[in-house]
Each structure stands twice: as structure tokens, then as C-alpha cells.
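Example record for the data management plan.
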Amino acid sequence: MLALWGGIEQLFAPSSGELRFRVAALLASYLENPGPSRQSRYKEILKLYDHRSIAAHTTTQVELNPLIKTLVIMRNALIKMVDDEKVPNQGDLESLLFCATPDSQS
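Corresponding structural encoding:
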């Protein structure tokens, strides 16, 4: 779980400021088009990040379901990177988050 989230953090939030929000917002923006599906994905990622924090900061056993969901999200992001033939940089991710249409990305 920690290794998966470490990879996600490096790809979607290279700065350490407010990681939970930043990772969830940028990852949801990368995987979903604007609208209800993006908001739903964002909320799902926030919950999964809470499981990551439990794994990192307690001795509590990691639950299997959140681990599998995290693995699926990471897989989907990696597949998109392969399909796009590009690892998104911070500017790409911010454009996805803040721009209304994909055409306005830089």
C-alpha cells in the first residue's frame, strides 16, 4: 500500500504541501472528465488516501479492498500514460484540473 501511494505521490504531487487534497484532485482530474464522475473519483481517492495514512502511521493491518482499489487506480493511470505516450508534468495536471476543455491544456 505504501509503495503504491509513494508512486502516486511522486507522479501527482511532487511538493509536500497538502498532499491528500493535491493527490486526490490531480489524480481524479487525470483519470476523469469534468463532472460528477470526476467528483466521485476524487472522493474515492480521498478515502483511499486515508487508508494509506493508516498504513503509514499505525500498526493496523491494511484492509484488502482499499489496497486493491488503489492498485486499480494506479494501473489505470499507468495505462493512460502509456496510451498518451506521456507522463504528465505538473503543468499538464494543473491544466486538467483548472481548464474547462482539454483543448486549453498547455
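Summary line stored alongside the record: The chain has one domain: 2-104.
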